[in-house]
Amino acid sequence: MSVNRVTTRTVPEEREGVRTPLRGRDAELAFMEARLDALDRGEGGIIRVEGPVGIGRSRILAESAAAARRRGTRVFEGAADPDEQFVPLGPLLDGLLSGEEPLSGAVRLRDLATTPGQRFWLLQELGDRLRETARNGPLLVVLDDLQWCDDLTLLTFNTLAAGLSSYAILWLVAVRGGSVPSGVRTTLDRIRRAGAHELALGALDDQATTRITEDVLGAAPDPDVLRVARRAEGVPQLLVELLGSLRESVTIENGTARLSAGPPAPRELPSVVRRLDQLSDEARELVQTAAAVGAPVTVALLAELLGRSPAALITAVRESLDADLLTESGDRLAFRHDLIREAVEAGLPLPLRQALRGQAAELPPGSAASPAEGPGPSTGRAPADAAEAGRAGPGDAAEADRLRTAAAELAATAPGPAAERSLKALELTTADAPERPRVIAETIPLLWQTGRAAQARELGASALATGGLGPEDEARIRLAVARLAAPFDFSEAVRQARAGAALPGIPVDVRGRLLAMLAVGLSMSGEHSAAEQVAAEAWETAAAAGDRSAEATLTTVRSAVSFHRMDLTEAFRQAERAAALADALGVSTSLWVPEALWHALLSNTAGRSAEALAAAEDGIRITREQGRTAATRMWLMTRSRILLEAGRLTDARADAEAASATTDDLGPGNFADVTLRYVMMRVALHTNDQQTARTYAAEARRMRSDGAPVVRHFGSWMLALMADFEGRPDRAMAELDEVMTSPAADRPAYAGLVDPADAPVLVRLALRGGAHERAAQAVALAERLAVLNPHLTFLAATAAHARGLLDNDLAPLVRAVRLYEDCPRPLARASALEDAGRKLAATRTSEAVPYFDTALALYARAGAERDVARVRRRLRAVGVRRRPSTAGLSGAWPELTAAEIRVVRLVARGLTNQQVAEHLSLSPHTVSSHLRRAFTKLDITSRVELTRLVKHRDSGE
Q1: Residue 650 to residue 888: CA distance in whole angstroms
Q2: Beta carbons of 799 and 792 less than 8 angstroms apart
Q3: Do the strands 220-221 and 256-259 form a parallel or antiparallel pair, or are they unpaired?
Q4: What pLDDT score was predicted for residue 885?
Q5: Torsion, Cα of 938, 943, 947, 949 (10° steps)
Q6: Per-position DSSP letters for 663-713, written without gaps between them
Q7: Which helix (H) or strand (E) holds 790?
Q8: What whole-number distance in Å separates Cα of residue 400 and Cα of residue 390?
Q9: pLDDT in tens, 735-779
Q10: How far apart are CA 790 and CA 617, in angstroms?
């Protein structure tokens, strides 16, 4: 009797329309049931299912989803497709917005997904919808084939999973084992660090193989059938497809499946045919040629048979490896599984197979292009093979030189195209070419500048790990890696630059740049004394080499050293010189971030907020036009700090959220620690957002263990502020122990504070905690800073404010109020007004009220809700009640802040987010954030509704 009823599936799912049991995965299913139990208790998380092609990842996901549905859990399922990687967010949106029960607001979310410039808003909306849905019960979000996901899907998944970690949402993702794109690898690293559970699927055992064979064939297999089934080596997909190819050759006799006429000839397998179809023509030809040869094959042989140079096959080889059809076996390429090779070969006409084998056999034994004598990995590279593999054709070398020249010319104005040309040059440069390390060193900064830091880091790490580099080549690569690391990991930048500078016999200009980069890293880390020493040595080296780029970087370090010494006049002079040098040389030569960024931070610290903000807006605009993703992100983070200290809390939070949503593939890093994370916590404290404050307090605890002193200092200050927020002044002082007792040479200029205006805050904390000596220390430093910089009114104001608090003296508090009037620091001014009013209230109540009223107005305008509530309590204590007001400045829009009103009115006029951004000198991300918050506050979901509402309210109807 023929077994014609067996159907072929990519996984062992159906026979006559009925799902077959899942065999050999009892432990994995038990694990999933345990995680679903935890989900029912409100515990979310991430599970990563990993394994090679055909191992059954999708079946595990399907069984888990079915188990969740049986429990009443809401399930969303999405999957990536290699043919649809050009559709941003496609896999995730399909999972969340399709199916029987899509996420609420699906129509609006799809509109956002298809509207240019709305991606950040879409991310926020997805987060809000998932939060809302999770409040009604646990969720399981399934995402299959992560390796095919586009970059935006990866970023969104990572951002949502991290941001919603406290909700009962379980993320179940599957990824192919082995080689995956760098963006996917970065995502996997992130979720592993976040505590993701890992479920690695291995080959099935013999018992499972036997039971699947019986399930598919409908009878117990005899030894001959089982011997054929074992050729699948426990890979479920290959096993089922192999059994499907047996159906014409099997008969069932007395309940046993037997082969009717010996082992069947190899046939095409559906999964292999699909994977071949997904390859480019060049890669498909390469795989088919390798299959015809039969044994593990050298690239040189494939090049000979295909009539091309080995270097011309780089892309095709990489594509075949990524498709998991071929694998590296010593110095040769072999098929991942012999059944795959047989299936590919079965699809070739017999005459072609014979011709290719004959051509390969005619090559001289032992030549570079001769096939291996037998299957299996080679024991080593033959000398002839090495020579051939390392030799590109003369045309390839010339093309690589042309591409490098083009990349260098484009770097200043179009880093994206420059990076692509540099990558192509690298592809055409063979592994043993003497110029390859130099091409790697040229490519790394271009990749970083265009937002591909993980790929850049992987390229550098691989080159350094391979070994065999000469001192100069290693030094150049370490310089590139140090530049890459500077925004993400201050300590790693120091390590790489130091190691490179210590290499013997390197050119003087390379050593000068490494020393300059080392000085930058030390300065950013907060190791001021060491930075000054290295900068002095670096300056001599750079001068000897005539290196103006290193001079620009070192001038920035000199400015930072002067700032640490509290000489802001000299700090500004050096910062302006550094920016001028960098502008003259062009941004592509800069060793660090744009030098103008440091000038903006310095201006902000000195109380020149308008100047700092203008510089930041120019930086964002220029770097965005040039396509410098990394620099744009750093400018955005910097502007969030400036907006915070300018009292524009809503705008500061919007910029910080925008920068956070577009963080690099290496993650936000140390620069984000001292900008956006700090900003988000300060805004949360001012607005009484306890949940957000606690979230960033957890980040601050992590920062306390960082290798860079400055990051530890920021973490300590954030934790001290949090302790004060929680009413624990003694704990606040304990958090500052390390900062205030660190060596004077490296102690921050303001006793651990991150801004001069925080000196009064520290005095207040110390007095509440009974640490009078520390309060006096903070006052002394603030007064010294003001004396050393008499032209900066802002510093005089903070010193007077701090002194008034320490001495409980009205006169310096009133003086501070007057001085702050000329400073664009409304929150600092409001604080001084509040403190002066508090002092007056003890004896002259009526005189205190105007101070409180002005402070209340400033806090309200900033949106500082917690501070507003505190001043209202003070007013009530002196017998005055003020009607509650909002942060909005318009009676027609009491729900909105001034910034939100500006955006809303422009949108209602028909402007796009991009046009609004240009009109208001904001980033599109910031506009999206304002608009999203306005929609939420106004309880509307479309621009049409908004336009109607604006017309209604502004007309006074």
Answers
A1: 11
A2: no
A3: parallel
A4: 54
A5: -20
A6: --TT-SHHHHIIIIIHHHHHHHHHHT-HHHHHHHHHHHHHHTT-SSHHHHH
A7: none
A8: 15
A9: 988 776 654 444 444 444 578 999 999 999 999 999 999 999 999
A10: 29
Q: What is the dihedral of CA 276, 281, 286, 292, to 10 degrees?
A: 60
Structure-block tokens of residue 120: 């950040």
Per-residue tokens: 259 = 């082969």
Which residues make Cβ contacts (< 8 Å) with residue 132, sequence separation at least 6?
104
DSSP 3-state assignment of 154? helix
Contacts of 519 (CB under 8 A, 6+ apart): 531, 534, 535, 538, 553, 554, 557
pLDDT (tens digit, 9 = 90+) per residue, 665-703? 555 678 877 888 899 999 999 998 888 899 899 989 998
Counting Cβ atoms within 10 Å, is residue 819 exposed (0-12), middle (13-18) or buried (19+)? buried
Question: What is the 8-class DSSP label of residue 21?
Answer: P
pLDDT recorded at residue 7? 30
Comparing C-alpha atoms, which of 485, 463, 484 is closest to residue 473? 463
Rounded to whole angstroms, how far apart are CA atoms 43 and 171? 11
Phi-psi domain of 197 (left: phi exceeds 0; alpha: psi -120 through 50; beta: other): beta
Contact 841, 877 (CB under 8 A): yes
Query: DSSP letter string over 419-433?
Result: HHHHHHHHHHS-TT-
**Residue 295 · residue 371 · CB < 8 Å:** yes
Q: Which residues pair with 334 in a beta bridge?
A: 327
Cα angle value 183/185/186 (rounded, 5°): 65
Taking each helix axis from N to C terminus, what angle separates 508-525 and 528-545, rounded to the nearest 10 degrees?
160
Contact 553, 593 (CB under 8 A): no
Query: Cα–Cα distances in Å, from 443 out to 466, 495, 496, 672, 909?
Result: 17, 21, 17, 24, 45
Q: Which value, to the nearest 10 degrees, does the dihedral of the CA atoms of residues 142, 148, 153, 158 take? A: 70
Q: For residue range 442-458, what is the model confidence (pLDDT) as tens digits?
A: 999 888 888 788 888 88
For residues 503 and 471, the answer to whether their CB atoms sit within 8 Å is: yes
Instruction: Say how far apart CA 186 and CA 733 lie, in whole Å.
Output: 38
SS3 content of the chain, % helix, strand, coil (to 5): 65, 5, 30
What letter would DSSP give residue 331?
T
Q: How far is 474 from 642, CA to CA, in rounded Å? A: 39
DSSP state of 755: S
Pair 799, 782: CB distance under 8 Å: yes
Structure tokens that stand for 439 in this block: 């091409």
Dihedral class, residue 863 (left if φ above 0, else alpha if ψ from -120 to 50, else beta): left
- What are the backbone angles phi and psi of residue 25, rounded to the nearest 5°? -125, 35
Q: Which of 592, 643, 589, 585 has the alpha carbon at shortest distance from 616?
A: 643
- Residue 275: pLDDT band by 50, 70, 90 thresholds? confident
- Average per-residue pLDDT in the chain? 82
Token pair of 161 as six digits: 């999973």
DSSP 824: S
Q: What is the DSSP string of 613-632?
A: HHHHHHHHHHHHHHT-HHHH
Question: In this structure, what are the phi and psi dihedrals at residue 532, rounded to the nearest 5 degrees?
Answer: -65, -40
Digit-coded pLDDT (tens) for 183-232: 788 888 888 888 899 999 999 999 999 999 988 888 899 888 888 888 88
Residue count (the chain): 957
User: Cα–Cα distance between 302 and 306 in angstroms, integer?
Assistant: 6
* Band (362; pLDDT cuts 50, 70, 90): low
User: What are the start-end ranges of the E strands in 799-911?
Assistant: none
Strand pairing class (250-253; 256-259)? antiparallel
Residue 525 contacts residue 490 (beta carbons within 8 Å):
yes
Residue 582 near residue 548, CB atoms below 8 Å: no
Reported as a single tens digit per residue, the pLDDT across 36-79 is: 999 999 999 999 999 988 899 999 999 999 999 999 999 999 88
